[in-house]
Design a protein that fits this description.
heterodimer, A: alpha+beta, 3 helices, globular, B: seven-stranded antiparallel sheet, 50% helix
């Protein structure tokens, strides 16, 4: 996926809750690439404009799985605190 | 219309690429961002915007150029460069402090600074400005501007005494001395120590420097944490131990000496060091003295005995002070008589043992007719370490009796204490074979029996001049 695609995909998947600024996304992509979480390559098929595509690496997948687990534990804990049906604490 | 769009993009893209990145990286970033802007502009045109507005809107949604530039710079360039820059700063400042220590010494507050001193101060300022300029240009950081103001202010405050890092170096030296018992300088060079309290400019400067340095160090540490490079990496935790340790060390180096008794003199006193060439002498033992004695035979001429003495006792003192401070010098021009007494005084500089070798009885033909060896304890010479110890323990407003006790405790056989009631000593000069000279001088000034100023000089020099006019 290329940067613009990622932003659009995130908007769609999050039902427009997450609208990442491009100025924020690209530095993050570059940082992840530098850390070896992503690979990138340029693609120019002649018709569309030349684009830089990003691809997750094994290292990136590992980190993703780890963070996913951490997030699951965290969100479960938060849900337990606020109540599974979204009930707030009653005074 | 395409041209207008590309102009808008070009302007934005130029503003987000920071100085310091390589050309390939800049081109890549520009190309990627441009591709994104094109996509986004097309999307806005699709939903009804005209091309100009669409391009401007696409650019606006990319975010602030300053913010994007900083993020891209630190991610692309990496922290390593900043660490090197940071270390370069510290090492550079210390180096200039060290050189100003070597060359920027001003003993007399009214004296004009030496050309070398001015040169180093100017070099120091150029160094700071250059670093700050490159830093400021690259990051357009307000912090760099504030740092520049601080350094220039401190420079102005101390100008033209010495580079501002001079006191910082002394602070480092104080900590090193307190921890290890040795001076950074004294390992290879001797120290010439002066301390005055009747130097109002220095008083003011010392207080301002220490106070400002503490504030500055803390301020810098806090501000640095706000710089993008010191913030958490977006994808992994980073506690920035390196920067934290360096910031802490710098703060400690400047702040801690104030709490040390020896360094408390920097508050309210002019504190300066100058470095002289070190000349150490070999140590003289009793057995060596006895060997010399045994080598001298009855019937030798004075020149023969002298050769032995010079060969085997290179550290013997030709002219020296005896008990009470009188200078005893052998007089080579004196006509020999049977009763002539030829004395050589030798001393072990670090121990208290003194050696006196007495050759007696050169007859009228100049032949040795009698000889004798006496080994006894006598007044020895304060080593640099002892003098430094006294210096470090002296404090402003110390009672005269306490000062006397301190000197006598640390330096029980000092000839200086013999004259101490007057509060001062003459400058004593000890000449050694090979034209080596040690000079020592203590000066104390009391008001109402309280110490108001003191001066301790210690120097070792070697005269290697020779007359080549013949």
């Amino acid at each position: 996926m290329y940067g613009y695609q990622i932003i659009k995909e995130m908007e769609v998947r999050s039902e427009f809750v997450f609208s990442l600024k491009e100025g924020t996304l690209y530095p993050i992509l570059h940082a992840m690439e530098k850390e070896g979480m992503l690979n990138s390559y340029w693609l120019d098929n002649g018709k569309a404009r030349k684009r830089k595509y990003y691809q997750i690496t094994k290292k990136g997948i590992k980190l993703f799985e780890k963070d996913k687990e951490a997030w699951a534990a965290y969100s479960t804990a938060v849900n337990k605190v606020i109540g599974s049906e979204g009930k707030a604490f009653a005074l | 219309m395409k041209i207008v769009r590309s102009n808008i993009f070009e302007e934005y893209l130029n503003s987000i690429v920071a100085q310091g990145l390589n050309k390939r990286k800049i081109a890549e970033i520009k190309e990627e961002f441009e591709s994104h802007l094109e996509d986004k502009t097309d999307r806005f045109i699709e939903i009804g915007y005209d091309e100009d507005t669409a391009a401007e809107k696409a650019v606006a949604e990319m975010g602030s150029p300053n913010e994007v530039r900083e993020k891209l710079y630190y991610i692309s360039k990496g922290k390593a460069t900043d660490k090197i820059t940071f270390v370069f700063w510290i090492v550079g400042l210390m180096a200039f402090g060290y050189y100003s220590l070597l060359n920027g010494y001003t003993d007399n507050p009214n004296s004009q600074p030496s050309p070398v001193q001015v040169a180093f101060s100017l070099l120091y300022i150029s160094f700071v400005i250059l670093l700050l300029y490159t830093n400021f240009r690259r990051r357009k950081s307000k912090n760099a501007f504030i740092l520049a103001l601080y350094f220039l202010a401190v420079t102005a405050l101390f100008w033209p005494l010495s580079a501002p890092t001079f006191p910082t170096f002394i602070s480092l030296n104080e900590i090193f001395s307190a921890v290890t018992g040795n001076s950074i300088v004294s390992q290879t060079q001797d120290i010439y120590i002066n301390s005055y309290n009747n130097y109002s400019f220095a008083n003011l400067g010392g207080i301002w420097f220490n106070g400002l340095s503490i504030i500055f160090s803390l301020f810098t540490a806090i501000r640095m944490r706000r710089e993008p490079v010191y913030k958490k990496s977006p994808i992994r935790k980073n506690n920035h131990m390196f920067e934290a340790i360096i910031a802490l060390l710098v703060t400690a180096c400047i702040a801690l000496p104030i709490f040390y008794s020896s360094a408390s003199n920097t508050l309210g006193h002019k504190f300066s060091l100058t470095v002289l060439q070190e000349q150490y002498y070999s140590k003289k033992s009793v057995s060596q003295a006895q060997e010399t004695y045994n080598s001298v035979k009855i019937g030798m001429t004075e020149s023969e005995t002298d050769q032995i003495l010079r060969k085997e006792n290179k550290d013997l003192i030709l002219s020296d002070v005896g008990p009470g401070g009188q200078i005893v010098e052998p007089d080579y021009s004196q006509e020999y008589t049977k009763d002539y007494e030829y004395k050589m005084y030798g001393g072990n500089l670090d121990n208290k043992l003194g050696i006196i070798i007495i050759y007696e009885g050169f007859d009228k033909t100049g032949k040795l007719s009698n000889k004798g060896l006496t080994i006894q304890r006598f007044i020895t010479f304060a080593s640099k370490t002892k003098i430094e110890n006294i210096y470090k323990k002296l404090k402003k407003d110390m009672k005269k009796s306490d000062v006397m006790k301190l000197c006598k405790d640390l330096y029980p056989d000092s000839i200086y204490t013999d004259y101490f009631d007057n509060g001062t000593t003459e400058k004593y000069s000890y000449q050694y074979i090979d034209n080596k000279t040690i000079e020592k001088e203590f000066k104390f000034e009391f008001k109402n029996d309280l110490l108001v100023s003191f001066r301790i000089n210690y120097s070792e020099t070697l005269d290697i001049s020779q007359d080549i006019s013949q």
